[in-house]
Structure formats: C-alpha cells, structure tokens
Known about the structure:
The protein has 8 helices and 12 strands.
Amino acid sequence: MKRILIVEDEAAIREFETINLKRVGYDITEACSGEEALEIYDNDLEGFQIALLDISMPGMDGFELCKELRKRSDTLGIIMLTARSQEMDKISGLMLGADDYITKPFSPTELLARVDSLYRRVELQNKKSPPVPSDEIVLGEFTLNLRRRTLLKNGKNIELTQVEFQMIEYFFAHPDVSIDRTDILNQVWGTEYFGEEKIVDVNIRRLRKKVEDDPSNPKHLITVWGMGYKWNTDIT
C-alpha cells in the first residue's frame, strides 16, 4: 500500500490533501495534531512511506514532529507544509531531516508532483537489491558499506537519512571530482523533481554537521566555487 500520514490541524486543508491523494491511489491516515500523529505512528503496524507535516500547529509543531519522526525512521519520506514563505522555515525543516517542503497555498498538481517524486525515491531505496557483503568504499577515515547502508568514521557509525546516504554514495563513487548542484539534484531527487535547487545546499550543510570535525571549516565535503561540491580525499 502507498501509505501517507497527513498531519494538519485545519480540517479544510486536511480534506483537500486527502481527497487529491486518495483519488490517485494513496492510502491516507489523518491526524490533527503532532501528538496524535506520533501516537498513530508509534502504534502503526504496517508502516508509512510518507508524512505530510504542517509546520504551524498548536502544541507539538511540525518542526518538533519532524525531529521525532526522523529519530524513529531514516527512510520515512517527510514533506513540510508551511503557509509562510520565509527561507528560514524551509531551511529549518530540511536541517531537521525533512526531504522536501511545499509552501501554502499550493495546487493539486504541485502536491501530487512532490508526493509522487518522494514516493518513488522512497520505494526505490526500499526495493534496491542488496549488494554483496564486500561492497564497501573506504576513503581515508570513512567506510561506506553499501549492503548495510552505513557510514563509519574511524569505526563509529554516523546516522544518515536516506537522502544523506544517497548523497554520500554519489560523492564516494566520484571522489575528488567536482559535481554541480544539478547533477546532485538529478541523482538524488530525480530528474522530475518539482522543487528548488537550493535543497542541495541545505542537505550539504546537514551532512557537514555529521561528517566534519569543524563544519564551518570543512575538509572533506568542500565547496568548489562556481561549480558545486566535491568529496576531498587530499587531507593534509
């Protein structure tokens, strides 16, 4: 089943999302608060592929709910919904582990495009045939295990979301090669992604917090000005 958890305190918006997603085959579970959503998620036995989270809710808001859901799952696709267009709302959600965002008001076309795109990525990762046990990439102090889908730094595990793992996997497959934002976007989010390219930059910032000793002065995941980013193995 293509299962989505919709978390929205405004009944009219929740109904709009539910109707449009149900008519294209998604199985919808609704919650009108963050607290209710967390209870539903923790007691669900079948599992959700995607969660649509409104940011502005009384009690537990969408940011806090996103953080809690991400603690519980690295593979759940999370889309933040906000009525505000400020960049900090978008960036904050992505830094907390969201995969994408939609700014209200939005059309049924945009809603379906964003949800379909994320659903395909989630399913692709879940259905990937596991590589053989020897499928490891070692770059300096880092070991990327493609079978277990883990990243170790000096033997210590670094927890990654599915998006972060896909980005690291792409960089490790092309060490010391400058990769532009469009290539990263197409590789990780897909060529049919409906959103903005800046989502790459926000996820790079999030990754640096996990892999760099000093994220403000990165040595591994570096910016190539005018081009994009690269994984640097020449650490002196």
